[in-house]
Design goal:
alpha/beta, Immunoglobulin-like, 18 strands, single chain
């Protein structure tokens, strides 16, 4: 079962160093707290807010609460200039933190580098550039932290669950670009032991453990999509991927430890009672749920994650609301310190996490997700027919090739492997008589057409879709027998 805790800096700034909050966490059954540690490139050898950290880390350890440091620069363009020197300075800063706080064994490196708000630039000429820099940052961080203490767990990225392709990059696409940068570097060591991923919606009103996000984003019910993205990007390299069902025990023991999730920000935002409005500032900027829904949603989310053995940690964001309504009011407690219904609901669910029910299993896919071909119901065409076509779709971006093959007759055998090989041929014996190619955007339905007059006889469509994320994943479709003339 996962370790449950909070992502909240309130303990760090509390007058008692977080002692009372840590006791609350223990009462909830939580055993972990995430603290943000800023990196200032203007002061690369100075631990930011060290006095607060000194006090609060010790209080957490004394209370039996493990501390996770989330370390990143608050200036989005920190690594955009003087990149190599600043990455080296950031690595040295992490090493300084590890030496100064040897009791902290878990470091999240970067925060939402697929969001321009935290990591810029995201794109150049419409191509992602942030992932290549993030790969260098992670590689340096991994090596510097492991050099100080090999037992430190390096947790990568803290990815945002969605991206708009303009100011941010969808997580599946970011992971693909990260893998490409890793492969291009020829590195043989990992860049992370675990993957930090954030789970929060733009609209909390119907958000729970069953919520899907549209590809290439990923919500709480889409963790397998993120696992697949990691497999597509890193399989066969020195960076471990997620564990798969059916892996032989001997192989599992011989291989490096598989990647696991740290769900580092899980948040369901709620509306503020009118009586407490004077305690909050600004105005709400997203649709928010009721407190009753938040309680149900957190139970659903915890139950979903507890049944996935790849989830190592679940950190709720936050324990106590932030006062600015433009930020997060997702705490188990309101700003006046009163407890929301989610407080007791979460405490009860944590106590029952060991009994999740049916454990979720996963294996990497070899086909294109959601691939379908509409061949149409018409199978007989006049000899003068000059246009024939099929429609294709997929649940992810793909490329498609359709070929029309002449066959001996309606009873001709179908050899799928042979047809797949022949589909590759541009011309000559065995090649399709006519062919067309198309780019398939996820969930869209492009039509592939062939044009030209065909001799009387029998034909079949052969259509192959190939994933853009991993060209080794394909789906082949063979259509019904068509008669022309």
């Amino acid at each position: 079962m996962p370790t449950v805790g909070v992502a909240d800096d309130a303990p760090k700034y509390a007058d008692d160093g977080g002692e009372a909050i840590y006791q609350r966490l223990r009462g909830l059954g939580m055993r972990e707290t995430r603290m943000v540690v800023d990196f200032d490139p203007a002061e690369p050898k100075t631990i930011q807010e060290k006095a607060f950290l000194d006090r609060s880390v010790d209080k957490a350890v004394a209370a039996g609460v493990e501390v996770v440091f989330s370390v990143y620069p608050h200036v989005p363009r920190t690594f955009a200039t003087d990149t190599a020197a600043r990455i080296a300075a950031f690595g040295s800063y992490l090493a300084l933190l590890a030496r100064t706080y040897p009791q902290v064994k878990r470091f999240i490196v970067l925060n939402e580098p697929n969001e321009g708000y935290f990591f810029a630039p995201q794109f150049s000429a419409r191509k992602n550039v942030s992932a290549a820099i993030a790969e260098k940052v992670l590689a340096t961080a991994y090596d510097r932290l492991k050099r100080v203490d090999p037992s430190v767990t390096v947790i990568g990225l803290g990815l945002s669950p969605d991206g708009n392709g303009v100011t941010s990059t969808a997580p599946v696409r970011f992971i693909q670009a990260l893998g490409a940068a890793y492969r291009a570097s020829h590195r043989r060591r990992p860049i992370m032991d675990e993957l930090a991923y954030h789970i929060h919606p733009r609209d909390s009103r119907t958000f729970d453990g069953r919520t899907h996000f549209r590809w290439p984003n990923g919500g709480p019910a889409d963790l397998d999509r993120i696992k697949q993205a990691v497999w597509d990007a890193f399989h066969g390299t020195g960076q471990p991927t997620f564990a798969e069902a059916g892996t032989p025990q001997g192989a599992a023991l011989a291989a490096p430890q598989p990647l696991r999730f740290v769900l580092a920000e899980v948040a369901v935002q709620v509306g503020i009672p009118p009586a407490l409005a004077p305690l909050y500032t600004s105005s709400e900027n997203v649709p928010v749920a009721t407190e009753a829904w938040q309680a149900k949603a957190y139970v659903s989310l915890l139950r979903t994650f507890a049944c996935d053995p790849s989830v190592a940690d679940v950190l709720l964001f936050l324990l106590i609301d932030q006062p600015d309504l433009g930020r997060y009011q997702s705490g188990l407690m309101r700003l006046d310190g009163s407890e929301r219904p989610a407080y007791d609901a979460v405490r009860g669910e944590i106590a029952d996490l060991a009994d999740c029910g049916t454990e979720h299993s996963w294996r990497h896919a070899v086909h294109v997700f959601g691939a379908r071909v509409a061949f149409g119901s018409q199978t007989t065409f006049p000899a003068k027919q000059r246009v024939l076509g099929v429609s294709v779709t997929a649940g992810e971006d793909a490329t498609a090739k359709a070929g029309l093959f002449r066959i001996a007759g309606p009873g001709a055998p179908v050899d799928r492997k042979l047809l797949s090989r022949r589909l590759n041929r541009a011309a000559g014996p065995g090649a399709p008589l006519l062919a067309d190619v198309a780019r398939v955007k996820a969930r869209f339905l492009p039509r592939l057409e062939v044009r030209g007059t065909l001799p009387r006889g029998y034909y079949r469509w052969v259509v192959r879709l190939r994933s853009v994320m991993n060209t080794g994943r394909t789906s082949l479709f063979v259509g019904p027998v068509l008669r022309v003339g």
